[in-house]
Input
Amino acid sequence: MDFDYAHYMLTGGKVEKENVGPCSPSKQVYRKHLAEILNMNRTRILAFKNKAPSSEKNVQESFSPPQETKSVKRRRHISQSPERVMDAPEIIDDFYLNLLDWGSSNVIAIALGNAVYLWDSSDGSISELLSTDDDIGPVTSVKWATDGRHLANWLEQFTCPTMGLLSYSLRTLRGGHSLRVSSLDWNDHILTTGGMDCMIINNDVRIRSHNISAYRGHNEEVCGLKWCSSGRQLASGGNDNVLYIWCSSMASSNSSNQWLHRFMDHSAAVKALSWCPFQSNLLASGGGIGDHCIKFWNTNTGACLNSVNTGSQVCALLWSTHERELLSAHGFNDHQLTLWKYPSMVKIAELYGHTSRVLSMAKSPDGYTVASAAGDETLRLWNVFGTPTMGKLVADRKQEPFSNVPRIR
Output
């Protein structure tokens, strides 16, 4: 940069030149030659006289960003076909039931009729956990505890509809609900159950009298239950089209108004619920047939942040733990899985394969693979949220401070 020339131009040197009167041809040639020598014919105040000299190959390589940075920034490929398809015979095609879960020990539990089967994804082995008679079954819900070693499942007892049986590891919890339980979720050692009797009950599995508290508000079957990661708030959805947010400290059988928020914006049953992993007070909910919407809630303020009409029944929702993305599973008419970018809610991909509505979804412990079970009696595994190799590459890059800055080694 020529700061002397810049100062000359800013102080009016060019104006003086333009105001100079006519002169002889020889004087004009002299001025032109002088301007070329002093480089005064430029129209820009700041300009580089010469291009930067080309550097040596080794210096250029040292200042070039590592090759893996480019690969991380590329748009990942999302396969339109499932990685694996397994048979799920006798799965109950009931929208309100929760028949699939993937535990932290990398084992999938799925309820098929009167039995519960386990599939170990590390070696592909299959085992039958329990099998019951028709007068006790079928299994209406399953849920792994956070430790991945204890599985809760509810059995509907047709011969005695006033009582259900809940099997917890080597223990059976009796009482509490008068009709089937279609939703389960864990909050540490507390197992929360939601049933067709409109009740939500907290069970402490460590003690003999396990029914410690209850939430009352729904007037139809409770088909969705999800505790937030902190364990302070519980979201429940029901066939009454209502979404409740409960506070763990307000669970009491004596209070007439226990809920923190009551949302009545959905126009169909609310089964699909998912708490955001990167914003603790953000909840996504999905409505069934007649609603078709995914809604986003700030559970601290009670505000509805956004509502998106998906065009079909929303059966399940899952947030990605690696990207700001949300996966939704749908029923009629296309039975697809749709991946959305948050918060723009632009569709990234749509995955087709199921020929009947998707009943449940579950995510692998590493957060990359999703399992979906549908009424077409199949269990499909999808590579939706990337691959472990990509995740390790990103993690390694983030661990090194200023990893995106080139340096000389």
About this structure: Residues 57-64, 68-72, 158-165, 393-409 have pLDDT under 50 and may be disordered.
